[in-house]
Specification:
By secondary structure, the chain is mostly helical. It has one domain. It contains seven helices and two strands. Strands 1-2 form a two-stranded antiparallel ribbon. β1 and β2 form a beta hairpin. α1 crosses α2, α1 packs across α3 and α1 packs antiparallel against α7. The longest helix has about 70 residues. It is elongated and about 110 Å long.
Length: about 240
Amino acid sequence: MAIAIEFLVVVFGVFLAFQLTAWNEARIDREQERDLLIRLHEDVRESIAGQMRDIHFLDTQLSDQAVILASLDACAVTPENMQAFQRGINTLGYINPPRLYRRTVDELAAAGKIDLLQNKALKAELASIVALVEWRAAGFDQVARLTEHYRFNVEDRVRYDHSRSYPDPFIGKFVGVDFDIAALCKEDVVASAMSATSLTTRDRRNAYQPVLDRYQAFVPMVAEELRTRWGVETTEALAP
């Protein structure tokens, strides 16, 4: 009987030790999950802010490019359009890849910790967002090469004057551009380059809006997970 009791004590002790170890590991995993979700929330908010800035920049480019095309058609630049015309030349073909601050995402992937996320819907949406961004980014190099070619066709026919600069809320400032609108409007290659660049700019604008929409829908999912499971309150997503 004494041996049997000692055996049971040992077995119970081992079982209890395993249970305590498993409980401690689960606690550590949940703490890591909470911290990862907090940082993921911050990363996506930064991604929203960056993507909103880029979309605003693309909208400004499209507006400026429309001014340039209209000026080429009229063979004249009106005084009220002069700044937009010169800014449009300065920023011609400047397009960023889709914004995604990947610090937490890359940490999860590198450490094989994606399974720490218990919410399957949240985990699936994160994977879908990453796939969307990578798909949109895959063609960026080709877009950059095309717009660079179009930009050269225009830059060869203008001159930048660094003694003049204009303030701008997005890019800080841009330099003055000297040009002969009467000569530019006679060269079909200039209008073709502007038209092709504007088409590419619009394509990127249309491609990046769904990315921003997904970010803005994802942030409340993360915030809800943090609030309901850990009582962590987070700042809501930026307004569009």
